[in-house]
Structures are given as C-alpha cells and as structure tokens.
Amino acid sequence: MSRAAGAVRALVLGAPASGKGTVSSRIVRKYQLQHVASGDRLRHHIMTGTKFGTQVKAYLDEGKLVPDDLVIKFMLDELARVEGSWLLDGFPRTAVQAEQLWKLQPVDFAINLNVPFDVIVDRVKGRWVHLPSGRVYNIDFNAPKVPGKDDETGEDLVQRPDDKPEAVMKRLQIYKEMTEPLIDFYNKLGILEEFKGSTTDEIWPQVVQFLDVKLKQ
Ligand code: G5P
Ligand code: MG
Predict the structure, then answer these.
(1) Domain coordinates of the chain in residue numbers?
(2) Which one is catalytic: 9, 43, 57, 127?
(3) Nearest CA to ligand 1 atom 4
(4) For residue 166, is it left (φ>0), alpha (ψ between -120 and 50) or beta?
C-alpha cells in the first residue's frame, strides 16, 4: 500500500480506559490526522448488525480479543480506505498484529499512555459513549452537556457491555499478557514515546510538546 507524500502514520498504545480515545480525539482535532480506532469500528459493525458484527460481538461483550486473522484483515482493509495521515487506536494489540502492521504499513511513531491501573478501574464506571461516532464521555471528567445525550447530535449515550467489572478485569489481564509486550516491540524499533500521568490533562501537554516538534507545527 503506498503512502501519500508527507502523510504521517502513528498509533496510540495503552491499557483499557487509559485514555487512548480521549487523547486520540484531541490529537486528530489539533493535527488533522484521521482517527482509526479498532474498538469504535468493531462496535459500529455490531450496532448496525452486519455479518462481521455478529461474528465479533461475543468477543467484545466478554472483554476478549477478536482473533488475529479476523481483526488484521479488517483493520488493514479499513486503513487502505483512509487517505492522508492516520492515527491508530486499539490496533495492534498482539505481537502477530504488530508484526503484520509493521510489514505492510510501518508507523512513524507509537505513543504509549502510562496511567496507573487503579485510576483506570475507577474510570470505566463513569464512561458513556455515543456509538455512531465513538465520542466518549465520563460523568467525573468530561460530562455531556445534557446527561445521557451526545453533545453534537443529541442522540442517546450508552454504557459499553465490556465496562461491567468482570469484563474490565478480563481486559486488563489480557492487556498485561498480550498487549503490554508491544511497548518493547516499538521501543526496540526506536519509535516509542511514553507519556505518564494519572489524568489526560496531565498527559496532554506532554503529547503536544512532542507532536509540535515531530509534526513541525
Ligand atoms: P477498545 O475499544 O479499543 P480498550 O479496552 O482498549 O477498548 P477503551 O476502553 O476504549 O480501551 P481508552 O480508549 O483507552 O479505553 O480510554 P477512553 O475511552 O479515552 O477513556 C476511558 C474513560 O475515562 C472515558 O470515560 C473518558 O472520558 C475517561 N477519562 C479520560 N481521561 C480522564 C481523566 O483524566 N480523568 C477521568 N476521571 N476520566 C478520564 O476495544 C474494545 C474491544 O474491542 C476488541 C476487543 O474485544 C476489545 O476488548 N478489539 C480488538 N480485539 C483484537 N485485536 C484488536 N486490535 C482489537 N481492537 C479492539
Ligand atoms: Mg477507546
């Protein structure tokens, strides 16, 4: 797959609810990249009842990973449709996914969000999402203007089935086993940037400082 001149390819890594979606939406707004979030795109298929959505629903509901063969093909097809610069969120999540992506669409840099686990577990309780757009809210952090309604469309917000405590614990355990090793994968490639903090507002200025230089704004 060819790359347009000057196009940037980047990805965000981090544990479940570490703020990947929140930071990504700030990045894409400020730096005009396209947000390609695997979870949002999978949930969209589930919501609209496609054949693929039916195939993957149980994995998401239970907090398990969608098998590599299914998700790799899906995400590479999604990326092939994106023109210009993009920011991946939630993909890759296993060594096999990272290797395939690196082979076919090597990224310029990987941003890792390092947020303490106890902070994360607390956050999901207050998360509400607008499924059609992937916009995410939190009653303690960025509450919607009208409770239960999306700020832009006024449509209903929902809680994710995988935000139930047992699914969250499963997701954190899978993250530790399968996804955390990717930090090392990108570190060895010399393209990892780590940002540490307990809140997105603490992490965000560090990200801006890095991207202002990296993207020469
Ligand atoms: P997802 O959708 O990729 P996760 O588990 O990786 O799901 P998640 O839960 O979407 O990640 P996030 O995007 O890292 O979390 O975090 P977020 O939504 O921005 O923030 C979490 C909450 O905290 C929000 O309510 C937000 O408002 C709030 N918040 C943010 N910052 C702060 C703060 O500073 N303070 C406070 N108080 N709150 C804050 O994947 C879902 C499933 O899809 C499948 C799997 O089944 C997966 O479990 N999947 C894949 N399967 C296989 N391979 C892949 N590559 C897959 N990708 C997805
Ligand atoms: Mg997310």
Answers:
(1) 9-214
(2) 127
(3) 16
(4) alpha
